[in-house]
Amino acid sequence: MVARSTVNATAAATIAEKMLTSADSPQQIAERDNLVQTSDAGALEKIVDEALARNPNAVECARPGHKKEKASFGFLMGAVMKASGGKANPKVVQEILAKKLAAIHGG
Asked: What are the C-alpha distances in Å from 5 to residues 2, 36, 63, 107?
């Protein structure tokens, strides 16, 4: 499930632990306990857009060459992850966020 990006490593550990006391499949446990990651680019793009709109200072500091570029990108990643309840697939979020910031900063 981790290799397919269905769940993250933390969720996988939780699922493995629950498998010891449950006859349910890993997929059933993940769905029942709301541990499945969101990889839907459309849904994640909306969350990224909201995070960018709410954090204009971080967006400005995330421009290439700014001394806080990496920290600001990380802050925005965190804002998206928080808004998604930790369910967003970080790899997909990173790709969307990078594209949006490049478009904003003319790159």
From this structure: 5, 9, 29, 29
pLDDT tens by residue, 13-37: 999 999 999 999 999 998 898 888 8
Number of Cβ within a 10 Å radius of residue 57: 10
Q: How far is CA 87 from CA 37, 39, 59, 65, in A?
A: 5, 9, 22, 30
pLDDT reading at 99 higher than 80: yes
Tally Cβ neighbours within 10 Å of residue 91: 11
Q: What is the mean pLDDT of residues 43-62?
A: 96
| Whether 96 contacts 90, CB under 8 Å | no
